[in-house]
Every structure is written in C-alpha cells, then in structure tokens.
Design brief:
The protein has 446 residues and is an alpha/beta fold. It is built from 12 helices and 16 strands. The strands form 4 sheets. Strands 1, 2, 5, 6, 7, 8 and 15 form a 7-stranded mixed beta sheet that branches. Bound molecules: flavin-adenine dinucleotide (FAD). Flavin-adenine dinucleotide binds next to helix 1, helix 4, strand 6 and helix 10.
Amino acid sequence: MDLLDQRYDVIIVGTGVAGLNCALNLPRDKRVLVICKSKITDCDSYLAQGGICRLKNDEDYDSYFEDTMHAGHYENNPAAVDSMIRGSQEVIGDLVNLGVEFATEADGSFAYTKEGGHSVPRICYHEDSTGKEITTTLLRAVRKLENVVLTEKVTMLDIIERDNCCYGIVALDNASGKVYDVLADYTVLATGGLGGAFGNTTNFGILKGDALAICLDHGVAVDRINYIQVHPTSLYSKKRGRRFLISESVRGEGAYLLDKNFNRFTDELKPRDVVKDAVFAQMKKDGTKFVWLDMRHIPAEKIAAHFPAIVHRCREEGYDVFTQCIPVVPAIHYFMGGIRSDLKGRTTMSRLYAVGETCCNGVHGKNRLASNSLLESLLFAKRAAQDIGSGFTRTDRGQESLALGALDGEKYKEPKKLLARYKNQVKKAVKAAQEGKDINVNYKEN
Ligand SMILES: Cc1cc2nc3c(=O)[nH]c(=O)nc-3n(C[C@H](O)[C@H](O)[C@H](O)COP(=O)(O)OP(=O)(O)OC[C@H]3O[C@@H](n4cnc5c(N)ncnc54)[C@H](O)[C@@H]3O)c2cc1C
C-alpha cells in the first residue's frame, strides 16, 4: 500500500472523535496520516448515545466541577477538570460550526438532558445518537482536508523508538498482510478503550488496549489502569457479541430500575459506580441475571423523540418499551486509566502523544461522570494538535536511522500472535494494578 510507504509529519492512530479532532486542528501545511484498525465506523465514538457536557453559564461552574469530582471520588486531577469545563463551550462551538446539530428549545437555545451524578441538566444531545452525529460530521470535515490521508484496516503493531523518542509506527496492512515502518516527526495515539480485551462490554471488540501494551513494552508511563468503569444498564441478551447500551439519559429522563417484583430498589441518578453496585447487589439478592428498566410512565412522545435508536433496538430484541419493562445488566464500558498524558496530550516519551480514552490525564478520577468523555477526548485532542503545531521540529534523522535499524523484524512476522500477546499483557497488567503492583517498573510479560 503506497500510503504506508511514505514519511509523514504526524501519524494519528485512531479515527474516533479524538483522532479526527486532532487531525482537524493540526496546521494545514503538515502532512498527516490517520489510520484505524478496522472500518472507520468501528470505534466507540460512533456508539455514544447520551450526549456531551457543556458548561451552561458561569453560575454552573462550581456545580459542574463538584459533580465531576464527586463522581471521580475526588481522585481527579483538578487542573484537568477545570481545563475541561472551561473548554467545553469552545468544543461545542467548534462542533456547531462544523454542522453538528444538537437538540434545541423553541427559542433556539440548547436543550439539555441529565444523567446520573449531574445535579442539573447540562448535556447537549442529538436524539440518542450524539456520537454518530459528532463523528460523522468530524469525518466529513477531515475528508475535505488535502493535507490529511485517512486509511482504514491498518493496524499499529508497534512504535518505532530509540532513547525514549518516538519516530513513527510499525503498521500492518490488514488486507495484504504486509508490514511497514512508517516514519513521522510526531505520533498521536488515539486508540480508545480496552473493553474488547475482556468481553461483556459495550465497546467494539477490536478495542483491546493495543497502544497500552505497546507503551508498557517501551517504558512509557501509564496510570490507574485498574480504573475501568462498568455501566449499570446494558440490554440483557443471551446472544454473543457487543452489549447494547441503554443510555443513562433514559434514567435522566425518569426511567426506574425495578427488582424481580417490579419495585424500585435504588436512586437511579447516583453516579454510575454506585448504581452499578446496587444493581449487582439486587441481582444477587433476587437470584436473577438482570433487573428491569421501566420507561412506561414517561410520555411516549418524549421517548420516541429522544431515544429512537434504543426503542428500535429493544423492539428488535422483542421488547416494546412503551408497554413493557426491559431487562438490563451491568457491562464493562469505559477506561478511566491509560497512557499518562499531560493537558497537551504529551506522554512521557518525546514526540509521542496520547489523547481520548486511551490516555489518562486524571480528569475522570476513579469514576467518569456521564457525558464527560466525548468532551474530554475532543478538547485535549485539540490541545495536542495545537501543541504539535506550535512547537513543531523535525526528528534527528541519524537517531531515526538507528531506531529503524534496531527494529526486530521477527516480532512482526506473526501479527495475530503479537496482538494476542498484547491483549493478554493488558489483562495481566490490569490485574497487577488491581493487586497494587507498580506496573510501570520494567513491565514485561514473562
Ligand atoms: C455504547 C457507548 C456509549 C457511550 N456514550 C457516551 C456518551 O453519551 N457521552 C460521552 O461523553 N461518552 C460516551 N461514551 C464514551 C465515548 O464514546 C468514548 O470514550 C469516546 O468516543 C472515545 O473516543 P476515542 O476517539 O478516544 O476512541 P474511539 O472512538 O473508540 O476510537 C478508537 C480508534 O482507535 C483505533 N485503534 C485502536 N487500536 C488500534 C491499532 N492497534 N491500530 C490502528 N488503530 C487502532 C480504532 O480502530 C478506532 O478508530 C460511550 C461509549 C460507548 C461504548
């Protein structure tokens, strides 16, 4: 594939909101390659249902800050939270300028919905497909850029690195099976979460934390990788495959959680981890595989207008949400930990950035507040692009040659095995972090 046979100024790995917004905000005189592992649409950004938070006005600041910190058990990085909240109007403004259509009130102002952990409604939304609306709009804009090459079904197998400086990636063309060394002055990891490594997840199965494993291999610092959010309500199904999320905004609009006798058993709008624990406890007490979610008391026209995709999917699974309760069960959903990055997306390796769900800048603490992740991904990806643009320099070509020369071709001869090793490495590292071991110190799989 010719596209992989060239040198780039910047390589971005991932076509979710983080990767696309980074590409959009890089200077137009930089040649940029954006790759993704599968189809462009196979990323969690497309799946986001509930919406994206926006600071409504100055008076909302204290409460938004407190809600985010409270949900995160006060383990959040306050500077990151402050930066995200203050940047939220800029991000939503950018999206509107690109053509994203959010729900509005009769006077044209944003209509806000609510989710668990929020003390007031402050979430902008587009029906129950906010992620698809945002991602397709970003994609349309990126496709118009002459300086950006976007290609799918290319898998990053490794980074090219020497003395803690990144010179590009080793990439597999999935179709031909050919492996390429693709050089760049800067590399941005925007590779999303890791639910696919574990199963029982709302995430795409391809998202297994490859970049995390690669960073562990190369001694790039990672943080809090045992902080994995379990969402309280995915649609219960005996079928295999990805779990279908029932957005928290359904509860935000008034839906109840019911036990096997159809009685409410918890406050549905507590932060996610609290509701998830209550659901698990109730399932144990009742000896059931799910609890019920009841929307029947919410006006039908409101449900139909706000949640058409959920109504449709439930119908496909045999449930009429207007007249029936639906069975829901917790599922692995979001990665709060990740590759350590600062507020400009910089990792501990020179010329290597990490943005979006794969990174950890501490903004979410121990538990993400609903609808903060699209925002976080978009904002800090933009900041990373600005940082790369403003400080752009070329790599040292001598060092680059040495880095290339040191690559071990044997490692990439069986890509499937390598990716399977990465997956196991991620699972082991998460387990080690759960056990309190320092996974940053010389972590190598044995
Ligand atoms: C069902 C669901 C609903 C959600 N709802 C909301 C919501 O309402 N509001 C909200 O704020 N957040 C929500 N989230 C979370 C949010 O969607 C994600 O956190 C966010 O979209 C992550 O964006 P990203 O760009 O970091 O990653 P993603 O969008 O997941 O993109 C990851 C990209 O990395 C690529 N990639 C991965 N590994 C490799 C590799 N080795 N080589 C090449 N490419 C690779 C993938 O192909 C993909 O293109 C939801 C998540 C899910 C799963």
